[in-house]
Design brief:
Layout (H helix, E strand, L loop, with lengths): L6 E6 L10 E11 L6 H21 L3 H16 L5 E12 L4 E11 H11 L1 H4 L8 E14 L4 E10 L8 E10 L4 E6 L3 H12 L5 E2 L7 H13 L5 H13 L4 E9 L3 E2 L6 E13 L6 E15 L2 H26 L4
Parallel strand pairs: 5-10
Antiparallel strand pairs: 1-5, 1-9, 2-4, 3-4, 5-8, 6-7, 10-12, 11-12, 12-13
């Protein structure tokens, strides 16, 4: 087997989301109308509504799939807010007697760990027994631009001549035109080692109680080399490479394949902190291999994450870690929302 893999391959089954931070702070606003006088009961109702809004905001900030997963357990959360909210602080209150409306803004400390456990237990993957949990192979490719070959513009000119001469008198009318063509830049990528992030990514899946197999048993050496070569030159796998990988996984009865790229950007200085700032752009797609032909069941459009550090290397490392783990969580969220398990 290749000793130094620049890709991460893991056989694993899907699980619901798992956040990096176990406790987060988030704000929410609750507004209620009251028929007569403002009463403690009305205030309490707005207070609870603001807490629910804060939880909903947390999921909304994490994407469409997260919001859909929240909606599946929203009633359960509303019925027992005290189990998920560690503390709540009132930041602002506003009473509008003329229109009989009362609003309150709160900041809560959200117990993300307990919230994720509830999501996991409510999902199809969480309710599946050990014999029905699907396996999944994911390929995460980290890379940065190695060199860019730019091409000069090519100009094409056209000349048309019309002879209007009569009886020996010659008059030539010339019309010129043309176009300019520029060939797209040719970009070569340098693949980055992802081994430092493998444990954390695998942990996202394994904490859901699913099987995680050694990646070297899923993808052969020939396919590994082909995948490396394809992603070094472009954003997609060549058709022969993809067909080979899919055929190999189908023979092993692996139902899902995730392909993700993490493109590290150029460093810059963060204006707020003065530290180095590096971005990473993440894209991913999920293929269902259970049918005769593979079909895409989920995708993550280009999303950018950033890392800050005292130097370029530290900022890049943090960006890659944040991007890879966020990609894993987003893929899981979308599959969970689609009831894929």
């Amino acid at each position: 087997m290749i000793k130094s893999l620049k890709l991460i391959f893991s056989l694993c089954a899907m699980l619901p989301l798992l956040a990096l931070a176990q406790v987060v702070q988030v704000k929410g606003v609750g507004t209620v109308s009251y028929p007569g006088e403002l009463s403690p009961t009305v205030k309490e109702k707005a207070y609870e509504k603001a807490q629910v809004a804060a939880v909903e905001r947390y999921f909304a900030e994490n994407g469409e799939a997260e919001t859909q997963n929240f909606e599946a357990i929203q009633e359960r959360i509303e019925a027992s807010l005290e189990k998920f909210i560690l503390s709540a602080t009132i930041l602002n209150e506003q009473d509008q007697p003329s229109i009989r409306k009362y609003s309150v803004t709160v900041r809560i400390e959200l117990n993300v760990a307990k919230l994720r456990n509830t999501l996991r237990n409510s999902s199809a993957a969480g309710q599946a027994n050990s014999t029905t949990k699907s396996q999944l192979v994911y390929i995460f490719v980290g890379r940065e631009i190695d060199n860019v070959r730019a091409f000069d513009e090519r100009a094409f000119k056209r000349i048309e001549a019309i002879d209007k001469g009569k009886a020996g008198n010659t008059s030539i009318q010339v019309e010129t035109g043309g176009s300019t063509v520029r060939k797209a830049d040719e970009i070569k990528y340098r693949l980055m080692p992802m081994a430092n992030y493998a444990t954390s990514i695998t942990n996202i899946f394994s904490q859901g109680g699913f099987n995680v197999a050694d990646p070297t048993f899923a993808i052969g050496d020939k396919d590994v080399k082909a995948v490396n070569k394809d992603f070094s030159a472009g954003n997609d796998l060549a058709q022969p490479t993809l067909r080979s990988v899919v055929d190999s996984l189908k023979k092993q009865q692996v139902p899902y394949l995730v392909l993700a790229t993490l493109d590290l950007g150029a460093p810059s200085q963060d204006p707020a902190s003065g530290m180095q700032r590096v971005g990473v752009t993440v894209t991913a797609r999920v293929l269902d291999l259970t049918g005769r032909l593979p079909r895409e069941v989920a995708s993550v459009p280009a999303v950018q994450y950033f890392g800050l550090g005292p130097d370029n290397q530290a900022a890049g490392t943090k960006a890659m870690k944040e991007g890879s783990l966020s990609a894993a969580r987003e893929v899981v969220a979308r599959l969970n929302a689609a009831n894929v398990h």
